[in-house]
Design brief:
Strand order of the largest sheet: 1-2
Number of strands: 4
Shape: elongated
Subcellular location: Nucleus
Main location: nucleus
Keywords: Coiled coil, Metal-binding, Nucleus, Zinc, Zinc-finger
Largest sheet: 2 strands, antiparallel
Oligomer: single chain
Distance between the termini: 71 Å
Protein name: RNA polymerase II transcription factor B subunit 3
GO molecular function: cyclin-dependent protein serine/threonine kinase activator activity; zinc ion binding
Number of helices: 11
Amino acid sequence: MKLLVSPCYHRMCEECVGNRFNAGPAPCPECHRILRKNDFYQPIFEDLTVENEVRIRQRMSMIYNKREDDFKSPKEYNAYLEMVEDHIIRLLYDVDTNEIDHLIERYKRENQASISKNRTKQQREEKLQRIISDQESIKRQQQREEYLKQLEEEKREKEQAKNSLINELATSDKDAKEIVKNKMVQLKKSSLSNRSASRKVQLDIESLLGTIDDGFGDDDMEEDEVDTGPFDPAESPYEAMKIELRDKYDDPNPAFRQGTLAAAGVTREMHQRYTIEGAMAGLFVPPATEEQDARQ
């Protein structure tokens, strides 16, 4: 059943409205106000009090559309707003509605020029805002497509570099360590180039696309933090220590079972040395003094 509402805010079903008002104007069955079929409409809000207030405010905003710039002082503007609000409340609660309707019509006649001027100004501002919003939407879509294209290109280049590395390791007589080093340098240069292009995008890409985990590791690093030098997997990132490794360790790390580090040229001994050096690196740092604690 589709319920409709009359201008006097009484509900009737659509079928009853048709049966009662198809022949012409007829009285409302509740308040006996003369109504026409076209006067009925489908409400937006379930609460008819809210529905009534919204429509009253819409009507008043079309007539009382002056702005603060139209008044000499904020005091006059506030008095104007208070008068409009008083009219709305009295219409909403059906207090002296005939008098308020008379005041509204008189104001409309006396201020017809300013009402029309402000209405035109408001329509122009709304149109401009829609144009700006549409342009921003188009710009965001273009930037999103550009960013996704760059991600896809970088992913494709990494896949090609991986296949090329595997092929060269299988067919070349060169040292495997040197091959891996050269490939890593090429891949870093390509990644930096793509990253530099993506920084030209002015808007915040993360806010446009949401949180995206692209799995590209150091893509969120600042440009001055990226190591652009050649990568040497045999070079330890820690300060050299005199450590004697055992022949074998119980290593719970499953990386070698997956072959990931081995494919990158890192041997089991290198991995174990890095792990031990990393665990011991903080042991040789002198404790902080009281002065250093106070500065912190």
